[in-house]
Design goal:
The chain is built from eleven helices and twelve strands. It is α+β, with helices and mostly antiparallel strands. Helix 4 packs antiparallel against helix 5.
Length: 341
């Protein structure tokens, strides 16, 4: 004969409700020993509560909503819905939000909409207690972009580029190159790069027969290349492709001949500023006998370095190479002439 279940008291009902509510803020479960200590109850009483959860707290399919996990000292109560589902912490969500905030220059594009949609889905799956910790997140994490490009008018291009990247399809790009000349490239896209608030597509141009960078804002049109049957033309993604290898050694993304560079730092504030930053993987800081600091590096191409030196003037002097020193000097002369009258 089945033994009749003890009728729950008011105190027991309150404890059952508190345990169930607490589990929503404990996605990894609540250990038996901690529950016993929290409510000052016996193991026998807790087992009665577990039986009640198993038999009376069921979902729409008749399965228990609260289950026992672990064994021995590790036994715990846990919400069945959290088992097998990766749990995000409020820290995980905060990290994601900060990543979203860094990409403010993508406002008005499919990229920003996709990232914000992901954030909303992640936030919606957090427990109420976790969401509470994320109050005022837009004020706790804030990004000040530096002269970012505006991509709000390039949504169609970006949408096509994203699909081509994921589906490995060849693009036909009408591109404005150096000198304002337009060329049509059949282009296998390998990597979309964010560089200093700008978007660049790295891939293989069949017209140039080499790997190139294309600035998104210089693309007049972007379309899929279609086969005779009307299906997009696909390419095999090169297994050995590494985007880092195309920027390694360059001062930025503009490549060029390998060049040894020496820069003299002319004041203490600039020295402090530069010592806290890694300008280039090969950089070395050398203290001269007169106490001034020299930065040396070996770069592939000096076009972007020249612009950087101009922006740091008059606190950085190019010592070598001569050509870079001469170019910077000539640009300073022209700039000074603008303000000579």
């Amino acid at each position: 004969m089945k033994q009749a279940r003890r009728k729950p008291t008011y105190g027991a009902a309150v404890r059952l409700a508190r345990i169930a509510a607490e589990l929503y803020s404990r996605p990894y479960g609540w250990k038996f020993k901690d529950i016993l200590a929290e409510f000052d109850i016996s193991s026998r009483t807790l087992l009665r509560y577990v039986r009640a959860f198993r038999e009376d707290m069921l979902d729409a399919h008749g399965a228990p909503m609260i289950v026992v996990v672990g064994e021995g000292e590790s036994r715990a109560l846990r919400l069945a819905a959290t088992i097998g589902v990766p749990q995000l912490s409020s820290y995980d969500a905060a990290f994601l939000y900060f990543g979203v905030s860094v990409l403010t220059f993508l406002e008005g594009t499919v990229l920003k909409e996709g990232i914000e949609g992901l954030w909303q889905r992640v936030y919606g799956k957090l427990l109420p207690s976790q969401q509470g910790k994320l109050s005022f997140l837009d004020r706790k994490f804030y990004t000040v972009p530096y002269a970012p490009k505006d991509y709000s008018g390039y949504n169609d291009q970006l949408d096509t580029i994203l699909r081509a990247l994921l589906e490995q399809t060849t693009l036909r790009i009408d591109y404005t190159g150096v000198g304002g000349k337009n060329k049509i490239h059949e282009f296998d896209p390998y990597t979309l790069i964010d560089y200093r608030g700008g978007l660049y597509l790295l891939g293989y141009s069949r017209l140039a027969r080499k790997i190139l960078y294309f600035a998104v804002e210089r693309m007049l049109s972007v379309a899929m290349v279609l086969e005779q049957d009307g299906q997009p033309a696909r390419f095999s993604y090169p297994r050995t492709h590494d985007p880092a290898s195309y920027t390694e050694g360059a001062f930025g993304i503009v490549d060029g001949p390998e060049t040894k560079v020496e820069l003299l730092i002319l004041n203490a504030d600039t020295e402090t500023y530069l010592k806290s930053r890694k300008l280039h993987p090969t950089q070395q800081l050398i203290r001269r006998r007169d106490g001034k600091l020299v930065i040396t590096m070996t770069v592939r191409g000096t076009a972007e370095l020249e612009n950087w030196v101009m922006g740091m003037s008059p606190y950085v002097e190019v010592l070598r190479p001569r050509e870079l020193r001469r170019n910077v000097a000539q640009r300073h002369i022209k700039a000074a002439q603008l303000y000579s009258h």
